[in-house]
Amino acid sequence: MKMLVGIVGVGQTHHRSKNTDCNGQELISIAVKRALESAELTMADIDAIVIGNMDHFESINYVDMWSVDGSGGYMKPIMKVTTGGTTGSAIGHAGFYHAASGLFDTVLVIGWEQNSESDTTAAISTCFDPITEREYSAGAIGPLAAHYIAYMTKYGATEADAALVSVRDHNNAALYNGYAHLRQTITVEDVMKSAYISYPIKLLDICPRSDGACAVIFASERKAKKITDRPAWILGVGDCHILVHLADGIGLANLPSLEIAARQAYEMAGITDPFNQIDVAELYIPASTAGVSWMEALGLCEEGGGPRLVRSGVTNMGGKLPINPSGGVLATNPIGATGLLRIGEAALQVMGKAEKKQVEGAKVAVATGFGGCFWSDITVLSSLPRLD
Amino acid sequence: MEQGKEAVKPLSVRYIADMPYNYHAGYYYSRFLRELRDNKRIIGVKCPKCRKIYVPPRIVCRDCFVKMEEFVPVSDKGTLLAFTVTNFLYTDTTTGGPKKIPFTAAFIKLDGADSNIVHCLDETDEKKIKAGMRLQAVFSDNRTGDYFHDIDHFRIIKGM
Known about the structure:
The complex is a heterodimer. Chain A is α/β, with parallel strands linked by helices. Chain A has a single domain, classed as Peroxisomal Thiolase, Chain A, domain 1 (3-Layer(aba) Sandwich). Helix content of chain A is 39%, strand content 18%. Chain A is built from 17 helices and eleven strands. Chain A has helices at residues 24-39, 55-58, 63-66, 68-71, 87-100, 120-125, 141-155, 159-176, 188-193, 221-227, 246-251, 256-269, 274-277, 290-293, 306-312, 328-331, 335-351; strands at 5-12, 48-52, 78-80, 106-114, 196-199, 201-202, 211-220, 232-240, 280-282, 364-371, 375-382. In chain A, the strands form two sheets. In chain A, strands 3-2-4-7-1-8-11-10-9 form a nine-stranded mixed β-sheet. In chain A, strands 5-6 form a two-stranded antiparallel sheet. In chain A, α5 crosses α17. The longest helix of chain A is centred in the middle third of the chain and has 18 residues, at 159-176. Chain A is globular. Chain A starts with a strand and ends in a 6-residue tail after the last strand. In chain B, 31% of the residues are buried. Chain B is 11% helix and 29% strand. In chain B, β1 and β2 form a beta hairpin. The N and C termini of chain B lie far apart (76 Å). By secondary structure, chain B is mainly beta. Chain B has helices at 26-39, 147-150; strands at 42-46, 53-54, 70-74, 77-86, 103-110, 117-121, 134-139, 151-156. Chain B is built from two helices and eight strands; from the N terminus they run αβββββββαβ. Chain B has a five-stranded antiparallel β-sheet. Chain B has a three-stranded antiparallel β-sheet with strand order 2-1-3, with helices on one face. The chains are: A alpha/beta, B mainly beta. Chain A binds chain B through residues 20-22, 59, 119, 121-122, 125-126, 130-139, 141-143, 145-147, 149-150, 153, 196-201, 243, 245-248, 250-251, and chain B through 10, 12, 15, 17, 21, 23, 25, 29, 32-33, 56, 58, 62, 81-88, 90-94, 99, 103, 105-109, 115-120, 126, 130-132, 147-148. β5 (196-199) of chain A pairs antiparallel with β4 (77-86) of chain B, so a sheet runs across the interface.
């Protein structure tokens, strides 16, 4: 059986579209400082560092070394992890693995990105096979758009269903999250009137690209209990990769990688009835369309039930299962940090530290990550060390 | 030392890097590209265990993880599974120049194949495109061993 690991500190920068005030190292140092302060730790307490971003966005290799000026990793073990869109969730898992191994008591995990330094869509497109897939795969947007065509065709979901998700997430960011990049309230009409950028995805359906960083501190059970009386315990993790062949993922209307990852994590955590056992979710929803079509993979509704779930309002703040109180990816997307922000925000919820975003009494939270050719990560967190 | 506003004004340094790549197509893709170029034929490879046919051909079956060696032709007609009409500007990673937009990415299951391919449609009006439509590959006259050139595009088969 794995060792118990808890999150004891979370820090993030104020995310923006273009941050020219500081370079990547300076950006990283802000998130690290805030994470250490939130846990009342110093860099001397940190045993190891895991860092992640996507190399192509900044065109800097060896970020593990390059980031030391900001990460505080001088003369410490550092591991860099890059897995595309799931980078943030993968580094979260890597931090968990480090602490769960028993080799490191306190692990600092850092995700960051200065997306404004390059052409994000062109950089993402390099994840597709150069010989057989890259030419017509427009970064993340094209494939996500086509995937919703498959879902709409199979289940009768609509563009208006996706607009509900966009409104929910944008408005949560505007009302509750002072760190979010986009903070404007919008209406379904605004979404429906915005221009198609890749049919059926419209401008207000898609995430921005942001400059920003997030740092999260993971600690072994022994250490976590010394640092805080209410850590966010990691009860389950799941990770499922699929093929490089994007076309095979798109052709399916569903997201089997998330379904499998969720099953793994739920089993590990003891979740048998996800809709009723989960109090809040911070989901990697990069396009509003995914907020409709991926819900069944998480076991939150029946197959094809995404539109019903979203229309019912239960995923809004105040509903039975609020999704993305922070505003999620549609409001804030510093890509290497995005998945870690989901874990960090979910941790804050079960630690009772989510401030304006707080879902009252949240005990169990899930966070997801999504990347490239339709692969998925999921993390289950709780204020309780086990679910009975 | 500078003082005041000038001292805290952020600067940036511009790089315009040409970084050409030469991707090795390998054994499976080379056979695939050669058949397109020389015979206007689309080929896949069959798993000896589960008999699934993969297009484009590749070394191992995703489910059985056994080496696949039996190349088989598939049809140049297929069914449209999903599509998107992309209409925002980004850098074309092949040329480094701006991408020509709009274009319609088409995710297609060719007749006889068990996996899907991505290519483009010559129709960019989304109202005229529906998942489930039947498509036909249109080959270039001067073929060079490049999948996205030798098959110029797919067209919608009318009267379906």
